[in-house]
Amino acid sequence: MIECIFTIDYEIYGDGRGSMRDLIYEPTNRLINLFQKRNVCFVAFVEAAELEKVSTHRTDEAIDDVNRQVREMYRNGHEIGLHLHPQWYNAKYVNGRWELDQSEYNLCTLPRERIAQIIDRSCNYFRDVLGVPDFTPLSFRAGNWLFQPSQSASIALAEKGVKIDSSVSKGLVQRYHGLDYRPALKNGYYWNFGIDVNKPQPNGALLEIPIYTKMVPFWRMLTSKRVHLQRKASTTNQRQRQKVLRLLDRLRWKYPLKFDICRMEITELESMFDEVIRADQKSPDSLKPLVAIGHTKDLVDFDTIETFLAYLTQKGIKVSTFVEIYERYLNGARKQAEGIPQSTW
Ligand SMILES: [Zn+2]
Hints:
The protein is of the alpha/beta class and 345 residues long. The protein has helices at residues 20-37, 48-57, 63-75, 112-130, 151-160, 224-233, 240-250, 266-280, 302-314, 322-337, and strands at residues 2-10, 43-47, 79-84, 92-94, 97-99, 139-142, 164-165, 173-174, 179-180, 191-193, 206-208, 213-217, 254-258, 288-292, 318-320. Strands 1, 2, 3, 6, 7, 10, 11, 14 and 15 form a nine-stranded mixed beta sheet that branches. Strands 4-5 form a two-stranded antiparallel ribbon. A two-stranded antiparallel ribbon has the order 8-9. The protein is globular, with a radius of gyration of 19 Å. The protein binds zinc ion.
Protein backbone atom coordinates (compact mmCIF):
# COMPACT_ATOMS: atom_id res chain seq x y z
CA MET A 1 0.00 0.00 0.00
CA ILE A 2 1.79 3.09 -1.28
CA GLU A 3 0.80 6.56 -0.12
CA CYS A 4 2.41 9.72 -1.40
CA ILE A 5 3.08 12.73 0.84
CA PHE A 6 3.96 15.97 -0.89
CA THR A 7 6.06 18.29 1.29
CA ILE A 8 7.12 21.82 0.38
CA ASP A 9 9.78 23.72 2.32
CA TYR A 10 8.13 27.12 2.66
CA GLU A 11 10.98 29.64 2.85
CA ILE A 12 13.61 31.56 0.96
CA TYR A 13 16.51 29.23 1.63
CA GLY A 14 20.05 30.56 1.89
CA ASP A 15 20.38 34.05 3.40
CA GLY A 16 16.86 35.22 2.65
CA ARG A 17 17.80 37.33 -0.36
CA GLY A 18 14.97 37.80 -2.84
CA SER A 19 11.31 38.71 -2.82
CA MET A 20 8.90 36.70 -0.67
CA ARG A 21 6.12 37.45 -3.15
CA ASP A 22 8.08 35.89 -6.02
CA LEU A 23 9.81 33.06 -4.15
CA ILE A 24 7.14 32.00 -1.65
CA TYR A 25 3.70 33.57 -2.02
CA GLU A 26 2.98 33.39 -5.76
CA PRO A 27 4.38 29.88 -6.44
CA THR A 28 2.56 28.50 -3.37
CA ASN A 29 -0.69 30.06 -4.59
CA ARG A 30 -0.35 28.17 -7.86
CA LEU A 31 0.43 24.95 -6.00
CA ILE A 32 -2.63 25.38 -3.74
CA ASN A 33 -4.88 25.84 -6.80
CA LEU A 34 -3.41 22.77 -8.46
CA PHE A 35 -3.95 20.57 -5.39
CA GLN A 36 -7.40 22.03 -4.78
CA LYS A 37 -8.49 21.01 -8.29
CA ARG A 38 -7.75 17.39 -7.37
CA ASN A 39 -9.11 17.72 -3.86
CA VAL A 40 -5.83 16.67 -2.19
CA CYS A 41 -3.57 18.31 0.39
CA PHE A 42 0.17 18.77 0.95
CA VAL A 43 2.45 19.43 3.91
CA ALA A 44 3.92 22.94 4.07
CA PHE A 45 7.15 22.85 6.08
CA VAL A 46 7.03 26.47 7.16
CA GLU A 47 10.37 27.95 8.22
CA ALA A 48 9.26 29.59 11.43
CA ALA A 49 12.48 31.45 12.30
CA GLU A 50 12.89 33.35 9.03
CA LEU A 51 9.20 34.24 8.84
CA GLU A 52 9.12 35.47 12.44
CA LYS A 53 12.19 37.69 11.98
CA VAL A 54 10.88 39.20 8.75
CA SER A 55 7.47 39.75 10.41
CA THR A 56 9.08 41.60 13.33
CA HIS A 57 11.42 43.76 11.25
CA ARG A 58 9.00 44.21 8.32
CA THR A 59 11.79 43.77 5.80
CA ASP A 60 9.59 42.34 3.04
CA GLU A 61 6.42 43.96 1.72
CA ALA A 62 4.72 40.56 1.22
CA ILE A 63 5.13 39.25 4.78
CA ASP A 64 1.48 39.87 5.77
CA ASP A 65 0.28 38.00 2.67
CA VAL A 66 2.71 35.18 3.47
CA ASN A 67 1.43 34.87 7.05
CA ARG A 68 -2.17 34.99 5.79
CA GLN A 69 -1.35 32.25 3.28
CA VAL A 70 0.02 30.02 6.08
CA ARG A 71 -3.23 30.55 8.02
CA GLU A 72 -5.39 29.80 4.95
CA MET A 73 -3.44 26.66 4.09
CA TYR A 74 -4.04 25.41 7.62
CA ARG A 75 -7.76 26.24 7.50
CA ASN A 76 -8.11 24.48 4.15
CA GLY A 77 -6.71 21.19 5.44
CA HIS A 78 -3.06 21.42 4.37
CA GLU A 79 -0.70 20.32 7.11
CA ILE A 80 1.65 22.88 8.65
CA GLY A 81 4.93 21.22 9.62
CA LEU A 82 7.81 22.86 11.44
CA HIS A 83 10.91 23.65 9.43
CA LEU A 84 13.77 25.41 11.21
CA HIS A 85 16.94 27.21 10.22
CA PRO A 86 17.91 28.34 13.73
CA GLN A 87 20.65 30.68 12.44
CA TRP A 88 17.81 33.13 11.78
CA TYR A 89 16.87 33.76 15.41
CA ASN A 90 19.94 35.87 16.24
CA ALA A 91 20.09 37.37 12.73
CA LYS A 92 20.68 41.10 12.34
CA TYR A 93 19.43 43.29 9.53
CA VAL A 94 22.35 45.47 8.44
CA ASN A 95 22.45 47.77 5.39
CA GLY A 96 19.49 46.11 3.74
CA ARG A 97 20.77 42.54 4.25
CA TRP A 98 20.31 39.79 6.79
CA GLU A 99 23.40 38.63 8.66
CA LEU A 100 22.68 35.18 10.06
CA ASP A 101 24.23 33.67 13.19
CA GLN A 102 26.18 30.73 11.75
CA SER A 103 27.10 29.49 15.25
CA GLU A 104 23.50 28.26 15.51
CA TYR A 105 23.40 26.63 12.06
CA ASN A 106 22.75 23.10 13.31
CA LEU A 107 19.94 22.82 15.87
CA CYS A 108 21.18 19.37 16.94
CA THR A 109 24.56 20.61 18.19
CA LEU A 110 23.09 23.32 20.46
CA PRO A 111 22.66 22.85 24.23
CA ARG A 112 19.45 21.05 25.21
CA GLU A 113 17.92 24.18 26.85
CA ARG A 114 18.61 26.27 23.77
CA ILE A 115 16.96 23.66 21.53
CA ALA A 116 13.87 23.66 23.76
CA GLN A 117 13.79 27.47 23.73
CA ILE A 118 13.97 27.55 19.92
CA ILE A 119 11.19 25.00 19.50
CA ASP A 120 8.99 26.92 21.97
CA ARG A 121 9.59 30.12 20.08
CA SER A 122 8.71 28.54 16.73
CA CYS A 123 5.51 27.02 18.15
CA ASN A 124 4.54 30.44 19.52
CA TYR A 125 4.99 31.96 16.07
CA PHE A 126 2.64 29.32 14.62
CA ARG A 127 0.07 29.82 17.38
CA ASP A 128 0.06 33.52 16.73
CA VAL A 129 -0.13 33.30 12.93
CA LEU A 130 -2.72 30.50 12.87
CA GLY A 131 -4.79 31.97 15.69
CA VAL A 132 -4.78 28.57 17.42
CA PRO A 133 -3.44 28.95 20.99
CA ASP A 134 -2.62 25.26 21.50
CA PHE A 135 -1.26 24.46 18.03
CA THR A 136 1.63 21.97 17.95
CA PRO A 137 3.07 20.77 14.66
CA LEU A 138 2.94 17.01 14.19
CA SER A 139 5.91 16.92 11.83
CA PHE A 140 9.40 18.43 11.70
CA ARG A 141 12.14 18.91 9.11
CA ALA A 142 15.57 20.21 10.09
CA GLY A 143 17.27 23.02 8.16
CA ASN A 144 19.68 21.60 5.58
CA TRP A 145 18.32 18.16 6.70
CA LEU A 146 20.70 18.17 9.69
CA PHE A 147 19.31 15.75 12.26
CA GLN A 148 22.66 14.58 13.63
CA PRO A 149 23.60 14.20 16.44
CA SER A 150 19.98 13.22 17.01
CA GLN A 151 19.41 12.61 20.70
CA SER A 152 18.93 16.10 22.21
CA ALA A 153 16.75 17.38 19.38
CA SER A 154 14.58 14.26 19.25
CA ILE A 155 13.94 14.45 23.01
CA ALA A 156 13.19 18.19 22.88
CA LEU A 157 10.83 17.83 19.91
CA ALA A 158 9.01 14.86 21.45
CA GLU A 159 8.61 16.74 24.75
CA LYS A 160 6.84 19.54 22.87
CA GLY A 161 4.48 17.06 21.18
CA VAL A 162 6.08 16.63 17.75
CA LYS A 163 5.69 13.01 16.56
CA ILE A 164 7.33 12.74 13.15
CA ASP A 165 10.63 13.78 11.61
CA SER A 166 11.19 13.93 7.87
CA SER A 167 14.78 15.18 7.59
CA VAL A 168 16.53 12.01 6.42
CA SER A 169 17.30 11.26 2.78
CA LYS A 170 18.74 7.75 2.83
CA GLY A 171 22.26 7.73 1.38
CA LEU A 172 22.90 11.47 1.75
CA VAL A 173 26.35 12.62 2.94
CA GLN A 174 27.44 16.17 3.84
CA ARG A 175 30.95 15.90 5.24
CA TYR A 176 31.24 19.61 6.07
CA HIS A 177 28.31 19.36 8.49
CA GLY A 178 29.13 15.84 9.73
CA LEU A 179 25.95 14.44 8.19
CA ASP A 180 25.87 10.83 7.04
CA TYR A 181 22.59 9.08 6.24
CA ARG A 182 24.19 6.12 4.46
CA PRO A 183 23.52 3.73 7.41
CA ALA A 184 19.78 4.44 6.98
CA LEU A 185 19.84 2.76 3.55
CA LYS A 186 19.15 -0.59 5.20
CA ASN A 187 16.07 0.71 7.07
CA GLY A 188 12.46 0.28 5.95
CA TYR A 189 9.96 2.90 4.78
CA TYR A 190 9.68 4.37 8.31
CA TRP A 191 11.07 3.64 11.78
CA ASN A 192 11.11 4.86 15.37
CA PHE A 193 14.33 6.41 16.66
CA GLY A 194 15.78 8.24 19.64
CA ILE A 195 19.54 8.21 20.06
CA ASP A 196 20.51 8.13 16.38
CA VAL A 197 18.16 8.89 13.50
CA ASN A 198 19.93 6.22 11.40
CA LYS A 199 19.16 3.46 13.91
CA PRO A 200 15.65 2.06 14.35
CA GLN A 201 14.75 1.96 18.04
CA PRO A 202 11.26 0.56 18.76
CA ASN A 203 10.74 2.70 21.87
CA GLY A 204 12.28 5.82 20.31
CA ALA A 205 10.52 9.13 20.87
CA LEU A 206 10.03 10.07 17.21
CA LEU A 207 8.93 8.37 14.03
CA GLU A 208 11.17 8.93 11.00
CA ILE A 209 9.42 9.04 7.63
CA PRO A 210 12.30 9.92 5.32
CA ILE A 211 12.28 11.89 2.10
CA TYR A 212 12.21 9.09 -0.46
CA THR A 213 15.46 8.51 -2.34
CA LYS A 214 16.77 6.01 -4.81
CA MET A 215 20.47 5.30 -5.32
CA VAL A 216 21.33 5.93 -8.97
CA PRO A 217 24.55 6.12 -11.02
CA PHE A 218 25.94 9.66 -10.65
CA TRP A 219 25.36 10.57 -14.31
CA ARG A 220 21.62 10.26 -13.83
CA MET A 221 21.78 13.36 -11.61
CA LEU A 222 22.89 15.48 -14.55
CA THR A 223 19.56 16.30 -16.18
CA SER A 224 19.39 19.85 -17.52
CA LYS A 225 16.44 20.71 -15.25
CA ARG A 226 18.26 19.65 -12.06
CA VAL A 227 21.56 21.27 -13.05
CA HIS A 228 19.77 24.54 -13.88
CA LEU A 229 17.88 24.66 -10.54
CA GLN A 230 20.99 23.66 -8.58
CA ARG A 231 23.05 26.40 -10.21
CA LYS A 232 20.31 28.93 -9.41
CA ALA A 233 20.33 27.83 -5.75
CA SER A 234 24.06 27.48 -5.10
CA THR A 235 25.65 30.03 -2.80
CA THR A 236 28.89 31.70 -3.80
CA ASN A 237 30.23 32.45 -0.32
CA GLN A 238 31.38 28.92 0.55
CA ARG A 239 34.78 28.56 2.17
CA GLN A 240 37.54 26.59 0.45
CA ARG A 241 37.26 23.67 2.91
CA GLN A 242 33.51 23.53 2.38
CA LYS A 243 33.97 23.44 -1.41
CA VAL A 244 36.47 20.58 -1.18
CA LEU A 245 34.24 18.55 1.14
CA ARG A 246 31.22 19.12 -1.11
CA LEU A 247 33.22 17.83 -4.02
CA LEU A 248 34.11 14.71 -2.00
CA ASP A 249 30.40 14.23 -1.20
CA ARG A 250 29.71 14.13 -4.92
CA LEU A 251 32.56 11.80 -5.90
CA ARG A 252 30.51 8.64 -5.73
CA TRP A 253 29.43 6.09 -8.32
CA LYS A 254 25.99 5.98 -6.84
CA TYR A 255 24.12 8.98 -5.60
CA PRO A 256 20.83 9.41 -3.70
CA LEU A 257 18.26 10.75 -6.13
CA LYS A 258 15.69 12.59 -4.00
CA PHE A 259 12.00 12.34 -4.83
CA ASP A 260 11.90 16.06 -5.62
CA ILE A 261 8.80 17.28 -7.41
CA CYS A 262 10.47 20.52 -8.44
CA ARG A 263 13.73 19.11 -9.79
CA MET A 264 12.72 15.79 -11.33
CA GLU A 265 11.41 15.38 -14.84
CA ILE A 266 8.14 13.55 -15.39
CA THR A 267 9.89 10.53 -16.93
CA GLU A 268 12.12 10.22 -13.83
CA LEU A 269 9.13 10.51 -11.48
CA GLU A 270 7.12 7.89 -13.31
CA SER A 271 9.98 5.41 -13.61
CA MET A 272 10.78 5.84 -9.89
CA PHE A 273 7.17 5.00 -9.10
CA ASP A 274 6.81 2.17 -11.60
CA GLU A 275 9.60 0.46 -9.69
CA VAL A 276 8.00 1.01 -6.26
CA ILE A 277 4.65 -0.21 -7.59
CA ARG A 278 6.31 -3.46 -8.73
CA ALA A 279 7.90 -3.88 -5.28
CA ASP A 280 4.55 -3.15 -3.60
CA GLN A 281 2.89 -6.03 -5.45
CA LYS A 282 5.00 -8.40 -3.34
CA SER A 283 3.77 -6.91 -0.02
CA PRO A 284 0.60 -4.91 -0.77
CA ASP A 285 -0.56 -4.99 2.88
CA SER A 286 2.37 -3.08 4.33
CA LEU A 287 2.18 0.71 4.45
CA LYS A 288 4.74 2.47 2.25
CA PRO A 289 4.66 6.23 2.77
CA LEU A 290 6.76 7.93 0.08
CA VAL A 291 7.68 11.51 0.91
CA ALA A 292 8.32 13.99 -1.89
CA ILE A 293 10.18 17.22 -1.29
CA GLY A 294 10.08 20.59 -3.04
CA HIS A 295 10.95 24.20 -2.27
CA THR A 296 8.75 27.20 -2.97
CA LYS A 297 11.71 28.88 -4.68
CA ASP A 298 12.07 25.93 -7.09
CA LEU A 299 8.38 25.76 -7.98
CA VAL A 300 8.44 26.68 -11.65
CA ASP A 301 7.38 23.59 -13.59
CA PHE A 302 3.74 23.14 -12.58
CA ASP A 303 2.92 21.03 -15.66
CA THR A 304 5.11 18.21 -14.33
CA ILE A 305 3.40 18.29 -10.92
CA GLU A 306 -0.03 18.28 -12.57
CA THR A 307 0.87 15.38 -14.87
CA PHE A 308 2.33 13.44 -11.94
CA LEU A 309 -0.80 13.96 -9.81
CA ALA A 310 -2.85 12.58 -12.73
CA TYR A 311 -0.45 9.61 -12.95
CA LEU A 312 -0.97 8.86 -9.22
CA THR A 313 -4.78 8.97 -9.66
CA GLN A 314 -4.53 6.64 -12.64
CA LYS A 315 -2.40 4.18 -10.62
CA GLY A 316 -4.78 4.40 -7.64
CA ILE A 317 -2.13 5.87 -5.29
CA LYS A 318 -3.47 7.99 -2.46
CA VAL A 319 -2.05 11.45 -1.71
CA SER A 320 -1.81 11.85 2.09
CA THR A 321 -0.44 14.08 4.79
CA PHE A 322 1.57 13.03 7.84
CA VAL A 323 -1.56 13.50 9.98
CA GLU A 324 -3.35 10.77 7.98
CA ILE A 325 -0.30 8.49 7.88
CA TYR A 326 0.25 8.86 11.62
CA GLU A 327 -3.31 7.75 12.34
CA ARG A 328 -2.82 4.68 10.16
CA TYR A 329 0.52 3.99 11.84
CA LEU A 330 -1.06 4.13 15.32
CA ASN A 331 -3.91 1.87 14.21
CA GLY A 332 -1.45 -0.60 12.75
CA ALA A 333 0.68 -0.60 15.91
CA ARG A 334 -2.44 -1.21 18.03
CA LYS A 335 -3.62 -4.11 15.84
CA GLN A 336 -0.15 -5.62 15.82
CA ALA A 337 -0.10 -5.45 19.63
CA GLU A 338 -3.46 -7.25 19.67
CA GLY A 339 -2.11 -9.95 17.33
CA ILE A 340 -4.52 -9.18 14.45
CA PRO A 341 -3.02 -10.37 11.11
CA GLN A 342 -1.96 -7.53 8.78
CA SER A 343 -3.98 -8.81 5.81
CA THR A 344 -7.25 -8.22 7.71
CA TRP A 345 -6.56 -4.59 8.84
ZN1 LIG B 1 15.14 25.01 4.52
